[in-house]
From TrEMBL:
Its main location: membrane. This is Major Facilitator Superfamily protein. PROSITE patterns: MFS (PS50850). It comes from Actinoplanes regularis. It is a multi-pass membrane protein. It is found in: Cell membrane.
């Protein structure tokens, strides 16, 4: 009932499917290269901050929250700018470039927590700028019925980079005598290759210029007057409140299993492998049975991860099962949520609308990460994980009511 202005495949659907392959593969290649770079840093950052610099859980929780959530409002600004100027590729390239440059900024920050926080915020500002324009380019080039598949293919390529990144970090650490600075340098160089690939091989989706009153701050704010958009945003925020971040999950596993420092990056590899294998099948499943149930199933898998972390069960098989479930969570939620949102949004405000959902999740993640770090500081790891498990059950229940009702209405 709110979908009249959404782009849909026409008689040229076959041609658009061909363009879909080019758009998705080009953007997937950029994401693959960029994720090699970003996951090199992400895989060692928790250990670098906690073990290398001696930061406590509360301080790490603040920095981890900043890593994803502090630039949330910039996502909205970037999304609106991309729609207004009709230059989604340009805005995405600016975001990729800023993140690449900030990998070298980690070298200059050294052990200073304020400077590290500033560099991480700037790095995530780049991610905030690029994510919505990139996802909008995918939705604008893809028929509605194939969005789950398109995002599944893109996320599978993205996750190939996430799978390789920790392995590259492990190799660099081994070759450099456990020098974190060497990882930051190599990561920055790889990220620059990703920016160059975007500039040379990704085509923008300009389309006809919309009437000026359809891309304005008033029109953007008007998205919130649409009931399905409000329901989706509220559900996404609730689900974001139950997400504590990869670093905490891996630190809990590392401490419980007494894993050696050199093996820590392999935890991210295990998650990425599961995500890589499942991204396309779960994207196809979402197109067939509905995207809301698949998203909710992914968060149920995350709840199962928390239960296992609190169960006291240990051993290699338990670790493998936790990483598998964590990969299921990512494969069922990351791209599928964007595929769920895309058809709700008018083409001229597609980037702004996707950024709105991403902003809500990012702000929720910022709150949950900071609160989890404080809970760990006050109650210990066991008390913190039990608290977030209870929260996950509550938020999943509330989100299920919102998203399933939304799915029936739309």
């Amino acid at each position: 009932m709110y979908l009249a202005s959404v782009e849909r495949p026409s008689a040229g659907a076959a041609d658009r499917t061909k363009r879909l392959a080019g758009t998705v593969l080009a953007l997937g290649t950029v994401s693959l290269i960029t994720d090699v770079s970003s996951e090199m840093v992400s895989a060692i950052l928790p250990l670098y901050l906690v073990a290398g610099l001696g930061l406590g859980p509360a301080v790490y929780g603040l920095i981890d929250g900043l890593y994803t959530g502090a630039t949330a409002l910039l996502r909205l600004a970037g999304g609106y700018l991309a729609d207004r100027a009709r230059r989604r590729k340009t805005v995405a390239a600016a975001g990729y470039g800023l993140s690449a440059f900030m990998k070298f900024g980690l070298l200059a920050a050294g052990g200073s927590v304020p400077w590290l926080s500033a560099v991480i915020v700037a790095d995530r500002a780049g991610k905030g700028l690029r994510t919505a324009p990139r996802d909008a380019l995918i939705t604008l080039a893809t028929p509605d019925g194939q969005l789950g598949r398109a995002f599944g293919v893109h996320r599978a390529m993205d996750t190939t980079g996430a799978f390789a990144g920790p392995l590259v970090a492990l190799a660099v650490l081994a070759a450099s005598g456990q020098a974190y600075d060497a990882v930051f340098v190599v990561s920055g160089c790889v990220a620059m290759i990703g920016v160059l690939t975007l500039v040379l091989f990704v085509r923008d989706h300009r389309g006809p210029r919309p009437p000026s009153n359809t891309v304005s701050l008033v029109a953007a704010a008007g998205l919130l007057r649409r009931r399905p958009v409000r329901a989706l945003l509220a559900g996404a925020v609730l689900l974001g409140l139950s997400t504590i971040g990869d670093g905490f999950v891996y630190l809990l596993l590392q401490r419980r299993e007494s894993l050696a420092t050199g093996w820590f990056p392999l935890l991210a590899v295990g998650t990425s492998l599961a995500y890589l294998i499942l991204a396309v099948p779960l994207g196809n499943l979402a197109d067939r049975v509905g995207r809301a149930p698949v998203v909710l199933g992914g968060y149920a898998a995350l709840g199962a991860v928390y239960l296992l972390l609190d169960s006291g069960l240990a051993g290699p098989l338990v670790v493998i099962f936790i990483l598998l479930l964590y990969g299921v969570y990512y494969a069922a939620t990351d791209g599928v949520l964007m595929a769920l949102a895309g058809p709700l949004l008018p083409a001229e405000l597609r980037t702004t609308g996707l950024a709105l959902v991403q902003t809500g999740q990012a702000l929720a993640y910022l709150a949950s990460s900071v609160l989890f770090g404080l809970a760990w500081q006050w109650w210990g790891a066991t008390g913190a994980i039990r608290a977030v498990t209870v929260l996950a059950v509550l938020t999943l229940s509330g989100s299920a009511l919102l998203l399933l009702r939304f799915a029936r209405e739309s």
